[in-house]
Specification:
Blueprint (H helix, E strand, L loop, with lengths): L20 E3 L6 H10 L9 H12 L6 E9 L12 H8 E14 L5 E6 L1 H21 L7 H18 L1 E5 L12 E2 L4 H10 L60 H10 L45 H8 L3 H4 L4 H7 L1
Parallel strand pairs: 1-3, 2-6
Antiparallel strand pairs: 2-3, 3-4, 4-5
């Protein structure tokens, strides 16, 4: 698409020019001829391109050549000051106003882009600026939370709108000139007014608060196994209490017919003295020490104590002789097995 060429009168804060820039092609469209004949009170010859260009330029350059692009329904006051009523019609009458977006034509191009350019009148620009400052900014400040630069941000938001609305130029196809009326006035047809409403309302930006600051979470480095016990809350997950604790190999006792656990057996055997255990003594075919050491020489493994019954105290023949009056031969050493079994 060829570049858009606009006159100096279309720039921001530029006054309206005394003459509209009109560029026509080598051939005039029939609809343009019919439109110019309809709006002219005085019959003028329209037999050539220069005649069409002169008639259209004089018509659009008239001070009364004001177009109504669209109409906006805007509130009269901030939300906190609006009137509340059970009747919606009463609320609409007292709380809203109709703002007409009036503009004038600054450029007509029927050669390169086939478009018409409109610029808002100073009165329409001033009305939009007042609405933005007194109503929109007040509602925006009331609907957002406070931060340190809120007033400066709202002021900058209004200044940006003032610049944007003064630079606003609406362009449409040259067929919009079919809505031309007497004295150069007119209005947009074919639903183009809705496009103007959307374009103007898009210039009214919301007040955006700054995003929340991201706070860096300082994580404590992992502690070594030698860390103090009070730092266990930062350590890794602990072993569930439902799992059985590991048992050292030196605590395991040999299998026993008792139904108690290994730890209870160890505590019972440790509490019983050597002299409290009474078991039938084996045949004294060998000599046995009075007690044996319950731990091995290595000191790492536990061995069950060897329980022995005390050997019977046998009286010698020399000790029995004075009492019994019997000699060595009469004592009966050949009956040694009987004494040992009865005792």
């Amino acid at each position: 698409m060829p570049p858009q060429l606009l006159p100096a009168s279309a720039a921001a804060f530029a006054p309206r020019a005394t003459s509209v820039n009109v560029v026509l092609g080598s051939k005039v469209e029939p609809w343009l001829t019919q439109t110019l004949k309809r709006i002219n009170r005085i019959k003028r010859p329209l037999n050539s391109v220069p005649q069409h260009q002169r008639c259209l330029t004089e018509t659009l350059s008239s001070p009364n050549a004001i177009w109504t692009l669209a109409s906006l329904m805007l509130p009269k006051a901030p939300d906190s000051e609006l009137r509340k009523d059970s009747n919606p019609l009463i609320e609409a009458i007292f709380n809203f106003q109709l703002l007409h977006l009036e503009a004038y034509i600054v450029h007509v191009d029927m050669v390169l882009r086939n478009e018409v350019a409109y610029k808002l009148t100073p009165d329409a620009i001033e009305s939009l600026i007042e609405y933005h400052k007194d109503i929109h900014c007040v509602n925006a400040k009331a609907s957002t939370y406070d931060w340190s630069e809120k007033d400066q941000q709202c002021k900058k938001l209004h200044e940006d709108f003032v610049q944007a609305i003064n630079k606003f130029v609406f362009t449409t196809h040259v067929s919009a000139l079919e809505g031309l009326e007497e004295d150069g006035m007119g209005e947009l047809l074919s639903g183009k007014s809705e496009d103007v409403k959307n374009a103007v309302m898009n210039l009214i930006k919301p007040l955006l608060p700054p995003p929340p600051r991201i706070v860096d979470v300082v994580r404590q480095p992992p502690l070594l196994p030698s860390s103090p016990a009070n730092a266990s809350m930062w350590s890794g997950p602990t072993t569930p209490s439902s799992l059985p604790a590991p048992v050292d190999s030196w605590r395991v006792l040999p299998s026993s017919p008792a139904s108690t656990s290994a730890d209870s057996q160890a505590s019972i055997w440790a509490s019983i003295a050597m002299t409290e255990v009474q078991l039938p003594s084996p045949t004294p075919s060998y000599s046995q020490p009075a007690f044996s050491q319950p731990y091995s020489s290595a000191g790492l493994y536990y061995s069950s104590p060897v329980v022995t019954a005390p050997l019977p105290h046998l009286s010698l023949p020399s000790m029995l002789a004075p009492h019994c009056g019997a000699g060595y031969n009469s004592f009966g050493w050949d009956r040694y097995q009987e004494y040992t079994t009865t005792m």
